[in-house]
C-alpha cells in the first residue's frame, strides 16, 4: 500500500495550490454540520488537526482560542493567509498528527476533518487527539467511512489500493476506530453521498 506519512507530506504540498478549488464548495455543508454538532462556549481552546488550508476557519466561532496543525508546510502557509484575510488569530504550525507537540488534557475541542481517511495510521492520530483533549473535551470528525456493520468488500478493497495512494482510504470504519481509541460517539450524521461521508461528535470514554 503506497500510503505513508512521507508521501502525504509531498503530495499535499503539491495539492495545496489547488486544494480549495476541489474542497471548498464541495465540503462546505458537511463542515458546517460537523462543527454545528459541537457544543461551543466562549474561550474554548480548539485544535484543528490536519487543518489543510483552513477551510474550517469561516465556520468556527470567533470567541475561541484557535490552534491549527498540518503535516504540509505549504498547507500551513495557506492557512495563515486565510486566517489573516478573515481577521482570525490562529496559532498555526507544521506538526504530524501522530506526534502532537501539546500537553495532555489541553484542548476543549479537537477537529479532525478529512484526515482520518488520509493518515496511514489513523488509530495513532486518534490516540494523540484523545491525549490532548480534556476529559470532557469534544472530538469533531468529518470524513468518509465504510459502514460500521460490514467490512469493505473485495472490489472496494481493490479500488482502495489506488484511491489511498492519491487521495483517501475508502475502507475505514468510524465506530471501531473511535471506540478502540477510547471515544464514545454521541452524534453520527450522514453528510454527503448517502452515508459515505459522516459527521461524528465523540467524547473521551469515562475511566479510560
Ligand atoms: C484532505 S486534506 C483535509 C484538510 C482539511 N482538514 C479540510 O477539511 O479541508 C488532508 C490534510 O491532512 C494533512 N495530513 C495528512 N497526514 C497528516 C499527518 N500525519 N499529520 C498532520 N496532517 C496530515 C494533509 O497535509 C492535508 O492537509
TrEMBL record:
<feature type="domain" description="Methyltransferase type 11">
    <location>
        <begin position="48"/>
        <end position="140"/>
    </location>
</feature>
<dbReference type="InterPro" id="IPR050508">
    <property type="entry name" value="Methyltransf_Superfamily"/>
</dbReference>
<dbReference type="Pfam" id="PF08241">
    <property type="entry name" value="Methyltransf_11"/>
</dbReference>
<protein>
    <submittedName>
        <fullName>Phosphatidylethanolamine N-methyltransferase /phosphatidyl-N-methylethanolamine N-methyltransferase</fullName>
    </submittedName>
</protein>
<dbReference type="GO" id="GO:0032259">
    <property type="term" value="P:methylation"/>
</dbReference>
<dbReference type="GO" id="GO:0008757">
    <property type="term" value="F:S-adenosylmethionine-dependent methyltransferase activity"/>
</dbReference>
<dbReference type="InterPro" id="IPR029063">
    <property type="entry name" value="SAM-dependent_MTases_sf"/>
</dbReference>
<keyword id="KW-0489">Methyltransferase</keyword>
<dbReference type="InterPro" id="IPR013216">
    <property type="entry name" value="Methyltransf_11"/>
</dbReference>
<keyword id="KW-0808">Transferase</keyword>
Amino acid at each position: 500500500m503506497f500510503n505513508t506519512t512521507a508521501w502525504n507530506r509531498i503530495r499535499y504540498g503539491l495539492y495545496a495550490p489547488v486544494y480549495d478549488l476541489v474542497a471548498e464548495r464541495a465540503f462546505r455543508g458537511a463542515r458546517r454540520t460537523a462543527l454545528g454538532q459541537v457544543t461551543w462556549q466562549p474561550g474554548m481552546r480548539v485544535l484543528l488537526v490536519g487543518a489543510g488550508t483552513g477551510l474550517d476557519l469561516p465556520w468556527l466561532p470567533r470567541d475561541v482560542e484557535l490552534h491549527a496543525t498540518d503535516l504540509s508546510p505549504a498547507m500551513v502557509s495557506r492557512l495563515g493567509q486565510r486566517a489573516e484575510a478573515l481577521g482570525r488569530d490562529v496559532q498555526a504550525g507544521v506538526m504530524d498528527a501522530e506526534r502532537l507537540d501539546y500537553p495532555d488534557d489541553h484542548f476543549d475541542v479537537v477537529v479532525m476533518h478529512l484526515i482520518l481517511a488520509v493518515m496511514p495510521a489513523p488509530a495513532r492520530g486518534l490516540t494523540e487527539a484523545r491525549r490532548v483533549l480534556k476529559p470532557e473535551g469534544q472530538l469533531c470528525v468529518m470524513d468518509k467511512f465504510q459502514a460500521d456493520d460490514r467490512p469493505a468488500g473485495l472490489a472496494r478493497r481493490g479500488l482502495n489500493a489506488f484511491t489511498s495512494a492519491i487521495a483517501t482510504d475508502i475502507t475505514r470504519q468510524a465506530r471501531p476506530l473511535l471506540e478502540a481509541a477510547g471515544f464514545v460517539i454521541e452524534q453520527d450524521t450522514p453528510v454527503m453521498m448517502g452515508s459515505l461521508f459522516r459527521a461524528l461528535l465523540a467524547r473521551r470514554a469515562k475511566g479510560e
